[in-house]
Design goal:
Blueprint (H helix, E strand, L loop, with lengths): L23 H4 L19 H9 L1 H13 L8 H13 L5 H13 L10 H14 L2 H4 L3
Helix pairs in contact: 3-6
Length: about 140
């Protein structure tokens, strides 16, 4: 479904699903067969799952939305914003090491966009994308 199509932002609970068509994103994540009853499903972790998240336009769009959702007031406030983003994605605050690495990433990542006037915004999108593709977002501990 295209992102600009009517109803594209509704929950999948309301989405009509054809039994013969499995959503591409879910195939890598052990989507159940909707043709047969399934009492138990295997749980696998394969490299294609991470690659799917890193290369997915859908996930990139969600990262852009997350970066817009968390307002940034000033660079000296980045630690507070990092805490908020971690809380939204992982359900917890970052460890001190995670916070330091995050601040370092946000300080250096804009250099990857040398001629872009929105380099800082792109760095935040990259950061959010990284968190959405990370283990803390995928697995409940």
């Amino acid at each position: 479904v295209a992102a600009d199509a009517a109803g594209a932002h509704r929950r999948s609970l309301y989405m009509q699903q054809k039994r013969t068509q499995v959503l591409g994103m879910l195939e890598s994540f052990d989507a159940p067969s909707i043709v047969f009853s399934c009492t138990a499903r295997p749980s696998t972790t394969v490299p294609l799952q991470s690659l799917k998240l890193l290369n997915s336009e859908f996930v990139r769009g969600r990262a852009q939305g997350l970066a817009r959702r968390v307002p940034r007031s000033a660079p000296e406030n980045d630690a507070d914003v990092i805490d908020r983003v971690y809380l939204l994605t992982a359900g917890r605050k970052p460890t001190e090491t995670e916070r330091e690495l995050s601040l370092e990433f946000l300080r250096t990542q804009p250099q990857q966009y040398p001629d872009a006037p929105d380099a800082a915004d792109r760095a935040w999108i990259d950061y959010c994308h990284m968190l959405l593709a990370g283990n803390a977002f995928l697995y409940v501990e």
